[in-house]
Amino acid sequence: MSSNVRPRVRVPSSAEAGETVLIRTLISHPMESGNRRDNDGNIIPRSIINRFTCDFNGESVIDVAMETSMSTNPYFEFEAVVPESGEFTFKWYDDDGSVHEDVKAITVG
Amino acid sequence: MKLTRRDALALGAGAVVVAGLPVRAAAPGADFIEAFTGGAEIADSGVTLIAPEIAENGNSVPIEISADGASEIMVLALGNPSPQVGTFKFGPLAASQSASTRIRLAETQDLLAIARMADGSYAQATAHVKVTIGGCGG
């Protein structure tokens, strides 16, 4: 089911030390809530991304516990401080056990 | 069958249980609030919850939450079949305790955001959203 899942992240490629940067993330995912029924009246089982995390060089920026009231193709926008050059790591934890990951490097110069 | 005093009491107790159910339903999300705050008092200022007054499509309603000095913010959609939306934990590298996302709303309802502040206190904000087309496939 996770064949169509594709993360997209927008992070600036460079920043000043200690600067605040805006981060936008989007991941394509059906986020099946478990409330819907198929044409035969059977409940379609829940299958969502249940957690999203963003770290910079191993330190946490944001960690979101997600429930079924999150929209399809979950979108997040938030701000991070960039103390030095390094990498943002983004992880989406799927109900099916898989973890979708994306990494963005940023240069402080 | 003769109605004994004991039967009458049992009937009465049953009626109380039945009558109690709608009361629980009238306070949706109370369990989640209790689990998050542990029953602590919740202040009415310190949290900002921005949501549209009217959402034409309940499948994707943009919201923004922010609370200076919060360690965590929980969002509930009180009119949804399952009210939990998500809980945002802010780490040491979060530049601000704020985030934007998109949520599902099944019908016209109130949203609730509760923040756990760094000092262990709690604050909340609510927003009423009118929904034209519901977004939970119900």
Please summarize what this structure is.
The complex is a heterodimer of chains A (109) and B (138). Chain A is mainly β and 109 residues long. Chain A has strands at residues 6-10, 14-15, 19-28, 49-56, 59-66, 75-82, 86-94, 99-108.
Mean pLDDT of chain A: 94
- For the termini of chain A, the CA-CA separation is 42 Å
Task: Work out the helix count of chain B.
Answer: 2
Overall structural domain count of chain A: 1
Instruction: Look at the helices and sheets of chain A and give the structural class.
Output: mainly beta
Q: Over all CA atoms, what is the radius of gyration of chain A?
A: 16 Å
Residues in β-strands, percent of chain B: 35-45%
Q: Which range does the strand content of chain A fall in? A: over 45%
Q: Briefly, what CATH class of chain B?
A: Mainly Beta
Spatial sequence of strands, sheet with the most strands of chain A = 2-8-7-4-5
Mean pLDDT of chain B: 86
Question: Can you walk through the features of this model?
Answer:
The complex is a heterodimer of chains A (109) and B (138). Chain A is mainly beta and 109 residues long. Chain A has a single domain (6-34, 46-108), classed as Sandwich (Immunoglobulin-like). Chain A is 0% helix and 55% strand. Chain A is built from no helices and eight strands. Chain A has strands spanning 6-10, 14-15, 19-28, 49-56, 59-66, 75-82, 86-94, 99-108. In chain A, the strands form two sheets. Chain A has a five-stranded mixed sheet, with no helix packed on it. A three-stranded antiparallel sheet of chain A has the order 1-3-6, with no helix packed on it. In chain A, strand 7 and strand 8 form a beta hairpin. The model of chain A has no long low-confidence stretch (mean pLDDT 94). With 138 residues, chain B is an alpha+beta fold. Chain B has one domain: SoxY domain (Immunoglobulin-like). Chain B is 22% helix and 44% strand. Chain B has two helices and nine strands, in the order ααβββββββββ. In chain B, a hairpin with a 4-residue loop joins strand 8 (109-117) and strand 9. Chain B is flat, with a radius of gyration of 19 Å. Residues 19-26 of chain B have low confidence and may be disordered. Chain A binds chain B through residues 20-21, 33, 35-37, 55-56, 59-72, 74-81, 83, and chain B through 59-61, 77, 80-96, 98-105, 135-138.
